[in-house]
Amino acid sequence: MSRQALAERRPFLLLSVAAALAFYYLRWTAFPEFYLIPVKGAAVAMLAVYAFVRHSGPDARLLTWALGMASAGDMAIEVDQQIGGLLFFGFHVLAMGVFLRHRRPDMATTQKALAAALLLLTPLIAWLLAGEMQVAFYALALGGMAGSAWASSFPRYRVGAGAVLFVVSDLLLFARMGPLQGSFMAEVMIWPTYYLGIFLIASGVVQSLRKWEPELRVVK
Question: What residue ranges are annotated as transmembrane (predicted)?
Answer without folding.
Answer: 12-28, 83-101, 113-129, 135-152, 159-177, 189-209
